[in-house]
């Protein structure tokens, strides 16, 4: 039997040649090309990434356009 088709996404989203780990959240109209999105990353609405690595938990703001970036994990503030 052929696999069942995936349900349609509720908004346009483009992910090409990328690795997406568990618990990654994306806003509407994001585009991701040749990237690694680690666990728990969040992409704001309209974010565009090309050739990037996002460490676990990194949040990309809405409308950001990033190319060839290595973005570190969020570090909690020290007490």
Give your account of this protein's structure.
- The protein is mainly β.
- It has strands at about 15, 20, 25, 30-35, 35, 40-45, 50, 55, 60, 65, 70.
- The protein starts with 12 loop residues before the first strand and ends in an 8-residue tail after the last strand.
- The model has no long low-confidence stretch (mean pLDDT about 85).
Sequence stretches where pLDDT stays below 50 over 5 or more residues = none
Give the DSSP E fraction (strand runs of 2 or more residues): 35-45%
Give a short account of the largest sheet. 4 strands, parallel
By helix and strand content, what is the structural category? mainly beta
Coarse shape: globular
| Helix-strand topology string | EEEEEEEEEEE
Report, as a whole number of angstroms, the end-to-end distance: 57 Å
**Number of DSSP strand runs:** 11
Q: Helical region count?
A: 0
Widest sheet: strand order?
Answer: 1-4-7-10
Radius of gyration: 14 Å
Query: What's the mean pLDDT score?
Result: 86
**Approximate helicity band:** under 10%
């Amino acid at each position: 039997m052929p696999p069942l088709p995936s349900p349609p996404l509720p908004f346009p989203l483009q992910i090409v040649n990328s690795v997406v780990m568990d618990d990654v959240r994306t806003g509407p109209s994001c585009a991701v090309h040749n990237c690694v999105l680690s666990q728990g990353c969040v992409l704001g609405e309209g974010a565009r990434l090309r050739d990037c690595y996002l460490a676990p938990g990194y949040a990309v703001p809405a409308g950001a356009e990033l190319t060839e970036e290595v973005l570190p994990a969020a570090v909690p503030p020290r007490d």
